[in-house]
Amino acid sequence: MKKYLFHLFLLYSTIAFCQEKTYYLEGTLGKSTIFMTVQVYKSDNEASLNSTYFYKNSLKDIKLEGKLKDTNNFTFYFKPGDNITEKFYLKKSGNNFDGFWYDSQDKKLAVHLEPVNFDNYKSNLKIRFDDEKLNLVKYKFLEFKKQKNTLYNNKEFVWYSEKHCDSDFFRLGSGFSQKNKVLINPILEQIHIQNTLSQLGCSSSFEYSNGQGIESTTTITFLNTDLLGFETFNSWFCGGAHPDFGGNGYLIDLNNGKEYEIDDILAFDKSVTGDRENNFSAFSKYRTDFFAPKLLALLTAEHHFIKPADGDSCDYTNEEYWNFISWSYTEKGITFTPYFARVERSCEEPFLVPFEKLKKYKNPKFPYELK
Fold it and tell me: Using an 8 Å Cβ cutoff, are 60 and 134 in contact?
């Protein structure tokens, strides 16, 4: 199952606090253009603030701590360690916010913010959460530049980087038909955009982002006339107690742009469903009752898993670790990576099952042979 990077962003409890209002703002800090999100949470007579802002010329999030002095007076500050390096004093009047910004040397600059006119930032970009709405703004200022060309199965892949952060990804180049490029490159660009926005949002209240919080590697794993397979592996630290890592596999149909999930490819029972978002109960039941046990049986026959003694970690014989796997479609077969809790994340490694062993479980709706 894909571990999307959207979970890198800070989540807030809806039990203790109810989100009362979110402001999406744009304006100036001195001579610089900035964009800011302000979220107000309230419970009884207690108020809590969350704010993130970024400069137009850098696009990297700066997460602020906040205080609400009264209904219209907002204080925000960035405090890595014990030192406040910058702070905002803003007063709300109508829909606008005005005030001043100070750095650690008490340098003072005027601030004026007003609601973002999102009509200026319309696009086809899919935003997953309302609190990422300013990604629509960031998207307009992304700049991709060609870096290098590579070959795989005598086909060219063109790699691009993004100006504001570390974010590299590929497009189809020479050797692919014009139809393939017109159909598939916008899909690849969309993935690159989402990866870039995740990188730009990878920040914390402990230090300024340098646009390198997510280390990402992309590898082409499969290619024929119909299918393109690749995988990404990400290691990230965006604040919090510990860094983390994870991988995603992709299989894209070159003929129609469809992206296949593992349940589109394999069906261990007729109850198979890949509808994780709209019918999670049925999806989870299938994964628990059929997917995990049958996959584990295949893997055990191939890799001879043995239950570790004395409570050692990396118990690959436990079905629970195979319910929600990562996977990758390769030239030799499909690799499956179990999902462990954070404390045992080092146990996560890919295990290959050759196509020959998977053929009898091919989903009838998957239009291609497993080979």
Answer: no
